[in-house]
Design brief:
The longest helix is centred in the C-terminal third of the chain and has 22 residues. Strands 4-3-2-1-5 form a 5-stranded antiparallel beta sheet. It folds into 2 domains: 53 residues, Thrombin, subunit H; 95 residues, CarD-like, C-terminal domain (Methane Monooxygenase Hydroxylase, Chain G, domain 1, Up-down Bundle). By secondary structure, the chain is α+β, with helices and mostly antiparallel strands. The chain is 51% helix and 22% strand.
Length: 158
């Protein structure tokens, strides 16, 4: 159970802050929802409270985990399939998991592949999405501005 003001991560969308808990009627069914504000893109998301376990909503990680993320980002990537379809599916699974370390691995691997061979349009979009998810969690975890986190990430990949 989360409370108003909690910083949480919604897999595939990124990190946000729970601004309210509201009861809404949708398609004739009343349910309670977490109303989340996402700092990047200034988007609001409604997450059904009954569905929290299924969607993988979790708390934002702390400093120790962010250090581990930065280590993953600076290690240069791991072995990936040369088959585009397998690689895409594997990376999508990692992003959907909501695990920050797996998202960081996707970002690292795709950045490395982009430098080596370039990315397809699909993988470029996936990289942008994974970076947005990662950036949003670091922003909320570290209390930094989006631009600061983007600069930090650029420095790691330079």
């Amino acid at each position: 159970m989360f409370n108003v003001g909690d910083k949480v991560v919604y897999p595939m969308h990124g990190a946000g802050v729970i601004e309210a808990i509201e009861e809404k009627e949708i398609l004739g069914k009343k349910s309670k929802y977490y109303i989340m504000r996402m700092p990047i893109g200034n988007m609001k998301v409604m997450v059904p409270m009954d569905n929290v376990q299924d969607v993988g909503l979790r708390r934002v990680v702390g400093n120790k985990d962010i250090s581990k993320v930065m280590d993953i980002l600076s290690n240069g990537g791991s072995e990936m399939s040369s088959n585009w379809n397998r690689r895409y599916k594997k990376n999508l699974e990692k992003i959907k998991s909501g695990n920050i370390f797996e998202v960081a691995e996707v970002v690292t691997n795709l950045m490395a592949r982009e430098k080596e061979k370039g990315l397809s349009t699909g993988e470029r979009k996936m990289l942008e999405n994974a970076r947005r998810i990662l950036t949003s969690e670091i922003v909320l975890s570290q209390g930094k501005e989006e631009e600061q986190v983007e600069s930090m990430l650029e420095a790691v990949f330079a």
